[in-house]
Amino acid sequence: MATGISEMSFHATTRLYAQHFCTASPFISPLRKNAKANQRRSLHARSWGISEKTHNFQNINLSQPFQSRKKFTECHCQQASDIANLSHDEANSTWVQDAVNKVSQVLGSTNGKGAIEFENGSAKHGEDPTLVMPEPAKDLQPKKTRGSSLVEDEAWRLLVESMVYYCGGPVGTIAANDPLDSNKLNYDQVFIRDFIPSGIAFLLKGEYEIVRNFILHTLQLQSWEKTMDCHSPGQGLMPASFKVRTVPLDGDENATEEVLDPDFGEAAIGRVAPVDSGLWWIILLRAYGKCSGDLSVQERIDVQTGIKMILKLCLADGFDMFPTLLVTDGSCMIDRRMGIHGHPLEIQALFYSALMCAREMLAPEDGSADLIRALNNRLIALSFHIREYYWVDMKKLNEIYRYKTEEYSYDAVNKFNIYPDQIPPWLVEWMPSKGGFLIGNLQPAHMDFRFFSLGNLWSIVSSLATTQQSHAILDLIETKWSDLVAQMPLKICYPALEGQEWRIITGSDPKNTPWSYHNGGSWPTLLWQLTVACIKMNRPEIAERALEIAEKRLSIDKWPEYYDTKSARFIGKQARLYQTWSIAGYLVAKLLLEKPDLAKTLWSDEDAEILNALNVMVDPTNPRRKRGKVLKKTYIV
Ligand code: GLC
Question: Which of 126, 470, 570, 604 gets the most CB atoms within 10 Å of its CB?
Fold first, then answer.
């Protein structure tokens, strides 16, 4: 494929420049600028109303750090974006103190116990003066009896407190922010996928800076040389997470600098490659443009090149026969072994969504014509494949039940040689007469019949599923409410793997025991995707019902990462508390249900061209249909 060489090399040169100019260690990618420029503080010091209902909580300014910066004698940073002048003096404690005082007022806790103290402009909380953590004291906890707007205010406060700063500007949110957790693992990092609901919550609130910074800084990390045992991931891979580290500045013992340190999976448990990161990045980029109206970010040459690098990685030819993306186990939200290697639905839905978003954003120019054509072809093929072969409902299940096997021919009905005995006994009972869903995975002679929530919801949001299928998925969620929602929305997958299956498929993973964590646990963050899907299909009442259930428990339970048991009665065995994407997922759902029109910025409508091409493919009078030769296939990517 013609890759727009000049742009690629421009991109690479900028990165090399940054590396040459800044790097002290080859394993760290510092993005810094000179000390003078460092005196500038990021973007507008604007007032920002947290709650439109409770006016006590205003003037929280996301441009200012919530952390004390006093431990840094000096900070050298390279900003990825333009930065308005605002002196360091303005980044003093006043804002922090003001904001937290207001939080205390809102929560009715100005007495000594619950209040966060200040000293020299830094928030003091226990031993660590650099962090303002969620207050564990009882009187700061929301009261069970109070109205939901207080839960919302608490959620905003926690979201603001989870913000991570790099050289004075907000760049993301930490995965979990529990002050009492002594074993944080990598939950103190900014995860790309976890930031998506945070970013969207900020966008919906009209706060764009943090999202812009996140997009531009993660772009700089995109193809950083990272290796695992001498092997580097493909250029274009986005990290799973990153951390802001403060390190001594070379040659100056009194100075430190902040660096962004990405993890591409080379340190992650199981060394899993985060395939979803780049896809989510593209989706967020499009949402940023739609919500803010600022298209200048997506139009930047480095951003355009970033999009193309992700696409290039995804569209590269391999050995695969299918248009779906082939990945290893644990390459998405489910980032441990759960038997989802191959062509998991979640990745396919995000892939389709990212292709749709990229198509909207890519600047038409000679250099990218081949790429755009390859992208269009893939959209059609992927859409056909998923709609046709991943779909199950009563009718389709009955067809599979009667499948002939070992068909050698171009027009086989049972193309993947699925043995009917594979239909699991639970599904025979479980499949409702009204409704259906997209299965979790499809491989030769293998259908993974488990229901995966995120993949199904995002297929609705991205229009990967047909309108009819989308309604049927929501029908199924309604009919199977006590299995999929029960006491906390939403089950990550259904049903759980048990016994020998659990032993073999998860490798006896003690975190993924039946009905826990990824193995049938319930994840409140999924509320936001459920809400977008329901609003898109004009069925917001389903999301409202789910939100009502979540709202009763989330704050009281301290915003857990996930819930356990078949009906989600318990807080997850190893669930983090104050998990940011549980908080943000709730906020996005809340905001969207209040202003459903905003959800349009997050979904993709069915595309007429794709629909047309699909109709041609299934048209029985089309002579080329049988061999699937409707698409012109001439592109080398
Ligand atoms: C767990 C989840 C993953 C998430 C991470 C940080 O590993 O499986 O999806 O990104 O925690 O919250």
Answer: 470
